[in-house]
Write a structure and sequence with these properties.
Blueprint: H1 20-40, H2 46-59, H3 66-89, H4 93-106, H5 110-126, H6 130-143, H7 147-163, H8 167-183, H9 198-215, H10 221-234, H11 240-256, H12 260-273, H13 280-295, H14 299-305
């Protein structure tokens, strides 16, 4: 399924002189494509991102002076960062790593470098590699300057420790993330970090508690439900994918609490939310929910999820 706006393909024509107007155009298109990724999933805009990268690669050789070349290089680094994320969301791990590596080669802004390491870590975490993810998050923390970026990295390190069943470090880093976020200046964040607001902090807090419920003690399901419920209520329609992740985790926690009816009600919302999402990650996150529903003998919930796990479903599309 594709939701691409034809306007994103209106690339400025290459000429002998590439100026700052072209760079501004690239940044505006990157912003629009990032919004499409959040709303519809990486599969909805990956081709458009790749097309824009091809244009930027040629344009770098025609930049009019050092100022333009430096600005276009920075914009291209951000674009490769987005390309890595859309490839990851579409289930293309190898392409994601290649794009992130190229982004690191081009990036000079420490905040962008930290964000690239964060996203590389998320790929490892998604593929059951919390220790590898911790390495990337640590690299990001080493160059991060803003409290906002530090909060993102601390929260994700907490998630890694929760996945490893290490309660102490997980809770300590989660507390640090909340403290850093409270000190952050959120008035004008860079586009690649703007997703991490109060709602997303609640979402990742709920996910961390979810991991602790699975790896340490089921009593963490209760605070997980509270945080995830807050996140679900706060996510706007333009963050549909993040809201879907929160809903999946919420349904899982309700199952652990023995409330199959509420889990099924939440899962029904997931089915509705994921109808227009081209995200392979959604499919991977749904599989454990169905397995838990089958284990706890909640057949209606399992049957509700099963159609979303088929390759033909939009949320599984690459």
């Amino acid at each position: 399924m594709r939701h691409e706006d034809p306007a994103v393909h209106a690339l400025p024509p290459l000429s002998s002189r590439i100026g700052l107007d072209h760079v501004r155009h690239v940044r505006a298109m990157t912003l629009a494509l990032r919004a499409m990724d959040y709303r519809y999933g990486g599969g909805s805009c990956r081709d458009a991102v790749d097309s824009l990268i091809s244009w930027c690669t040629l344009a770098l050789h025609a930049a009019d002076g050092d100022e333009v070349r430096t600005a276009l290089k920075a914009a291209t680094a951000d674009l490769y960062n987005l390309a890595g994320w859309t490839a990851f969301d579409a289930g293309l791990g190898g392409s994601a790593y290649r794009a992130f590596s190229r982004a690191l080669e081009l990036a000079e802004d420490p905040e962008l470098v930290a964000n690239i390491h964060y996203r590389m870590g998320r790929v490892h975490l998604h593929h059951d590699g919390p220790r590898e993810a911790l390495h990337n998050f640590h690299l990001g923390s080493g160059v991060a300057r803003s409290q906002h970026t530090k909060a993102i990295l601390s929260a994700n390190q907490a998630w890694c420790f929760a996945e490893l069943g290490e309660r102490g470090p997980a809770l300590a880093l989660l507390g640090r993330a909340h403290d850093e976020f409270a000190l952050a200046d959120l008035n004008d964040p860079p586009s690649w970090a703007a997703f991490f607001d109060e709602t997303d902090l609640a979402g990742i807090t709920g996910v961390i508690y979810t991991s602790l419920a699975r790896t340490v003690d089921l009593s963490f399901a209760r605070p997980a439900i509270a945080a995830l419920t807050k996140a679900v209520a706060g996510y706007r329609d333009d963050m549909a994918r993040s809201r879907s992740f929160a809903l999946i985790a919420l349904a899982l926690n309700h199952l652990w609490q023995g409330d199959g009816d509420q889990a099924a009600a939440v899962a029904a919302t997931v089915v509705d939310q994921t109808a227009g999402l081209a995200s392979a990650r959604i499919r991977r996150k749904l599989a454990p929910l169905r397995a838990e529903a089958q284990r706890r003998r909640v057949p209606d919930l399992a049957e509700l999820i099963t159609p979303l796990l088929t390759p033909a479903c939009p949320s599984a599309a690459a």
